[in-house]
């Protein structure tokens, strides 16, 4: 007896998968990128984004971005590793002669400059991490001594007497006036 269903011509039915908020957000971000790159106008991009937020199934999201080219790969900053590689290659190129050998004088000069650079960086780091130049043991300097004597009377040999009340007022009592 022949099979009741022709398996060669039968279509398979796959249930439609529901779209999550993350799926909708990925589609909207692609649409925003397309608007920013000028691939879509603001009105069309806005309409497609509204449709993306209203989408129920994953198959509803696909037509919104299927005519857009893929987003360009994100370019990242080169970082320290590539910068270090460039420095090493530059030093190697400057140290080698036309025959490919290293000159002892050039190597010595480079090592001397590198050592001086490290000493300078160490000195600057030490100064930055020190107490800030306030004279050693954490004391603040002249302004702390001034504030210790704010209420005192200050006399000098001329006989004038100035009183300070601790605020902004100074009184002058006498002298040669």
In summary, what is this structure?
This is DUF1707 domain-containing protein. The chain is mostly helical and 177 residues long.
The beta-strand count equals 3
- Tell me about the largest β-sheet: 3 strands, antiparallel
The backbone outline, from C-alpha atoms, is: flat
Rg (CA only): 39 Å
Low-confidence stretches: none
Order of strands across the main sheet: 1-2-3
State the assembly state of the protein chains. single chain
Strand content: 5-15%
Structural class designation: mainly alpha
Distance between the termini: 136 Å
| Mean pLDDT, all residues | 76
Q: Helical content, roughly?
A: 40-55%
Order of helices and strands: HHHHHHEEE
How many helix segments? 6
Per-chain topology:
Layout: H1 21-36, H2 42-54, H3 58-65, H4 79-95, H5 104-129, H6 142-148, E1 154-155, E2 161-164, E3 170-172
Antiparallel strand pairs: 1-2, 2-3
Helix pairs in contact: 1-2, 1-3
């Amino acid at each position: 007896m022949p099979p009741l269903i022709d398996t060669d011509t039968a279509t398979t039915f796959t249930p439609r998968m529901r779209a999550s908020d993350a799926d909708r957000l990925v589609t909207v971000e692609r649409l925003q990128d397309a608007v920013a790159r000028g691939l879509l106008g603001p009105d069309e991009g806005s309409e497609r984004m509204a449709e993306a937020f209203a989408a129920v199934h994953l198959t509803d999201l696909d037509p919104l971005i299927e005519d857009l080219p893929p987003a360009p790969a994100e370019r990242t900053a080169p970082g320290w590793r590539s910068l270090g590689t460039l420095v090493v290659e530059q030093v190697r190129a400057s140290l080698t002669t036309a025959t490919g050998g290293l000159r002892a004088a050039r190597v010595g000069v480079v090592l001397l400059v590198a050592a001086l650079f490290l000493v300078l960086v160490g000195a600057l780091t030490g100064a930055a991490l020190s107490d800030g130049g306030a004279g050693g043991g954490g004391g603040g300097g002249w302004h702390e001594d001034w504030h210790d004597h704010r209420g005192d009377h200050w006399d000098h040999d001329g006989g004038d007497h100035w009183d300070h009340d601790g605020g902004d007022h100074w009184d002058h009592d006498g002298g040669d006036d």
